[in-house]
Write a structure and sequence with these properties.
The structure is a single chain. By secondary structure, the chain is mostly beta strands. The two termini are 27 Å apart.
Length: 241
């Protein structure tokens, strides 16, 4: 979402960044960066500017999502960065958080000017996302060790929260949403979507069918979950209260 209300949809492929208008579906840019892009994350910087970040073979890419223009040359990264997310700390500063085969790194500033704190020891991170607690504290959630566990870290301190949440697959997908005031984690692997209380790590009994998962919090305190299967591409939606 841009400051003026326009919506952008971004994805990476073997040739670079692809960018679409979220309302019309019109392709705005293709193969930007000329690099194999593993993951793309979007958000706002501490100054309120929209930012796209992509992890590539040649480094970390920073783009202006209005026109998909690069904001800086690709930033050199220690190891192949395959996962990325953005976080806003309480008080305003923004972080770019990257994951690779050696750990999780936090970069402070809109253009990753300086590393922030110590590297988080978490070998082989496949996927990262950011969640905000009720009091505004940002948490980093990551799939670690080729999908064997999901870990949570405090974005401000880098400290791990609770025990790792176990999973059963090698290609785990995750999503989060708030249900009745509590943040839930959803993990999809082996065509089963499971639910967990994000902070406590306690499982929620109800499961769904799917190897892919997405979730969104709704204004009334409920959440909408979408689960997709590999076989046949069937997608189901579920209202969680």
């Amino acid at each position: 979402m841009l400051a003026d209300g326009r919506v952008r949809v971004a994805a990476g492929d073997e040739d670079g960044l692809c960018l679409w208008d979220g309302t019309s579906g019109r392709l705005l840019a293709d193969a930007v960066g000329k690099d194999r892009i593993h993951q793309v994350a979007g958000g706002l910087t501490s100054s309120g500017r929209a930012l796209l970040v992509g992890t590539g073979v040649n480094g970390l890419h920073l783009w202006n999502p209005v026109a998909a223009e690069p904001l800086a040359p690709p930033l050199e990264h220690v190891g192949d960065a395959v996962a990325v997310t953005l976080a806003t700390l309480r008080g305003g500063p923004s972080l770019i958080v990257t994951g690779d085969y050696e750990g999780v790194r936090r970069w402070q500033g809109d253009l990753c000017e300086t590393p922030f704190g110590a590297e988080i020891d978490a070998p082989h991170v496949d996927m990262l996302t950011t969640v905000y607690t009720e009091d505004g504290r940002p948490l980093i959630v990551g799939v670690v060790e080729e999908g064997e566990v999901v870990c949570r870290w405090d974005a401000e301190t880098g400290e791990e929260i609770g025990q790792p949440i176990p999973t059963d697959g090698e290609f785990v997908r995750i999503a989060t949403a708030t249900v009745s005031g509590r943040v839930r984690l959803f993990t999809a692997d082996h065509d089963v979507v499971r639910q967990w209380d994000l902070l406590s790590g306690e499982p929620v009994a109800e499961t769904f069918t799917g190897s892919f998962v997405s979730a969104v919090s709704l204004p009334d305190g409920s959440a909408l979950l979408a689960a997709g299967t590999k076989e046949g591409g069937k997608v189901t939606t579920h209202r969680l209260v």
